[in-house]
Amino acid sequence: MSAEIQQLWVYLSTTPLLWLTLTLISYQIGTWVFGKLGCHPLLNPVLTAIIGLVVLLKVTGIDYQTYFRGAQFVHFLLGPATVALAIPLYRELEMIRKSFGPIIITLAVGSLAAIVSAVGIAWALGGEKIILLSVAPKSITTPIAMGVSEQIGGLPSLTAVVVVLTGITGAVGGDFILNWLKIYDDNARGMALGVASHGIGTAHAIQRSRVAGAFSALAMALNGLFTALLLPVIVYWMQ
């Protein structure tokens, strides 16, 4: 019986559908656990799904390339999902229009702070130039970050890893920091999560409220633009 199960597993592990299905199931389990245990930030569904999949790959000995061949459809959907964030933006358009000036100032400062802090920490830890360039766009959404990293001379694959870690860190730790700072306004919390932790932070903000999600989506989108404009100037200044 065990030999039959092993043969079945060997067959299924080579089919792309298996890994796509397991990815969706892992996220669904993470969402269920998150809701059942009081929506604690440490139980962020993205984090628990990643941990579950890493454990599964380690136990089964499946390499990442095999997994990604199956799960790449989820990667493809990142683009449409990002565009879909325009919906909460549209619903709160009037409120955003009234706060447009403070929003732009906040974004400019937040974008610059994200770049300088990432590069500064990497430099203080002895990182080489290519590492500094790879971590600089850590706070913008993955597709834009990888493109920016490639253009300025960084490593897009390293950038993708840092971007995901930044998003998870923001979604998990953002609420603790904002509560500690006594910032309870949904507009401000949404802006902070969108600037600091892009799409993953925005998904977390949407779980809090529609307003927080709208401001986070706006911050994520404009932070990508600000960073893409600021980074080439900073890189030129560094040379």
Automatic annotation (TrEMBL):
It is a multi-pass membrane protein. Keywords: Membrane, Transmembrane, Transmembrane helix. InterPro entries: CidB/LrgB. Pfam families: LrgB. The chain crosses the membrane at residues 42-61, 73-90, 102-125, 158-181, 214-238. It comes from the Bacteria. GO terms for cellular component: membrane. It is found in: Membrane. This is LrgB family protein. It comes from Geoanaerobacter pelophilus. The lineage of its organism: Bacteria, Pseudomonadati, Thermodesulfobacteriota, Desulfuromonadia, Geobacterales.
